[in-house]
Amino acid sequence: MGRNNEKNIKKHNDKLHKAQAKAKQAEMLRKEKLKAMVKKFNENSSEENN
Q1: Span 6-22, mean pLDDT?
Q2: Strand, helix or coil at 1?
Q3: pTM, whole model, 2 decimals?
Q4: CA 23, 18, 13 angle in degrees (round to 5)?
Q5: Rounded Cα–Cα distance for residues 6 and 14 (Å)
Q6: Alpha carbon of residue 40 to chain centroid
Q7: What is the C-alpha to C-alpha distance for residues 1 and 24, in angstroms, rounded to an integer?
């Protein structure tokens, strides 16, 4: 029996895809937070200029 049997390949792929999804979710969350911070900064800057 080899190490690359269907069960092991599926287990590895599931773990890999779960990690990739988690990284993608974290990246989206960071982008949303950055967008909110930039928006807030721009609002504060425009209030100071007026």
Answers
A1: 96
A2: coil
A3: 0.66
A4: 125
A5: 12
A6: 22
A7: 35
- Give me the residue label for tokens 């950055």: 34
Q: How far apart are CA 32 and CA 15, in angstroms?
A: 26
For the chain, the maximum distance between any two Cα atoms, rounded to a whole number of angstroms, is 75
For the chain, the distance separating the N- and C-terminal CA atoms, rounded to the nearest angstrom, is: 75
CA distance 29 to 35: 10
Calculate the dihedral angle through the C-alpha atoms of 18, 23, 27, 32, rounding to the nearest 10 degrees.
40
Locus of tokens 């911070």 = 37
How much is the mean pLDDT over the chain?
A: 91
